[in-house]
Amino acid sequence: MTVKVVGRENINQPLWLLAEVTYRCPLHCVFCYNPVDYAKQHEELDTKHWMRVLNEGRELGAAQLGISGGEPLLRNDLEDIVKEARSLGYYINLITSGIGLTEKRIENLKNAGLDHIQLSFQDSTKEMNDFLSSTKTFELKNKVADLIKKYDYPMVLNCVLHKLNIDHIREILDMAENMGAEYVELANTQFYSWASLNKKQLMPTKKQCNHAEAVAMEFRERLGNKMKIYFVMPDYYSKRPKKCMNGWGNVFITVQADGTVLPCHVAGMLPNIEFSNVKEKTLEWIWYDSPSFNLFRGDDWMKEPCKSCPEKEKDLGGCRCQAYMLAGDASLTDPICEKSPHHEIVRNVVRDAELLDANEKPIIFRTDSESRRLMGEKVNGKLNLEDRRLFEEEAIASAEKSRVGSV
Ligand code: FES
């Protein structure tokens, strides 16, 4: 497919810049969206490069900055990054597990100008929280929640939902209320990266989702604006796909730890696309002119049934990464859509969620050794089709050669 570079006049400015400043992390979450081959990506941009990224992002028009990882607190220069972002006028959100957020650190970050902290919990119980992250961090997170309040930040709690914790939704919301949370994000797992490897163990049933939604509604009605609740159903139970990232290269720009720039945080797994690096190109060129960012802009790239679909503007054909993972081609209709000829795959996953015992297969934790082991298995051809797609030679982003302009 030839990439048509859309004229600059037809391209929006990015609003969101996500800086994944490191892939190092003390936690080992089973649903982590970091690349499955992250253990290969040791390189991290230095402070000077991040300063340049922040400046270029702001010049491009980005106003919201998310700082995530891995665990961003593992970077000693986090305060410098925040300070620079503050001077440029970003609204700055730190997305953290809380591990490493000491009182000294939060005080420094406050002084540097950090606006917002989003703290993740894995569950309302110590046992499940610690199991899912393969750490003993539940009590520590509670202490961090106190610090966030003490330093007058809005309490923003994030808990990824899935089969193993979704039935605890009432307890999770009680915990959030007791902590004085202003916002709670209860997003069902998006099945990319590590979550995709663990899909059979993590996919909730329709009954579980409906129950969770009803409980979320009950809390919403009772608490109103006092505690805002965002509840997102898994798209596997939808008839139409989501307008992923609000469109490819439309609003979001992600810079990975090593400087690779992506239109969404998991696109690095897509084969036959060269994503540019900020060490070689400016963010402006990458956003407006790079073939990778223009690949799925507009609708010229669409195939049937999207091409002639009256709803194509609504969802833009869904998620490119999901289309690749489920149907093997990023330019196809997202199989979540009932009109997709591959929708059967989604129906099967949903059916299996009802049948399978979550403990049937060992769950895979996000660790360096698992990442390396899986890469080894990929070479020896032991993975199933979908898992293998996460590891295809071309999908291992870092060391690949240029194949710009074709998929
Ligand atoms: Fe990459 Fe949807 S997650 S386009």
Describe the structure.
The protein has 407 residues and is α/β, with parallel strands linked by helices. It has 16 helices and 9 strands. The protein has helices at residues 47-60, 78-88, 103-112, 126-133, 138-150, 169-179, 193-197, 199-202, 206-223, 283-289, 291-294, 312-315, 320-327, 343-355, 368-380, 385-389, and strands at residues 16-20, 64-68, 91-96, 116-121, 156-159, 183-187, 228-232, 252-255, 261-262. A 9-stranded mixed beta sheet has the order 7-6-5-4-3-2-1-8-9, covered by helices on one side. Residues 393-407 have low confidence and may be disordered. FE2/S2 (inorganic) cluster (FES) binds at residues 244-245, 264, 266-267, 319-321.
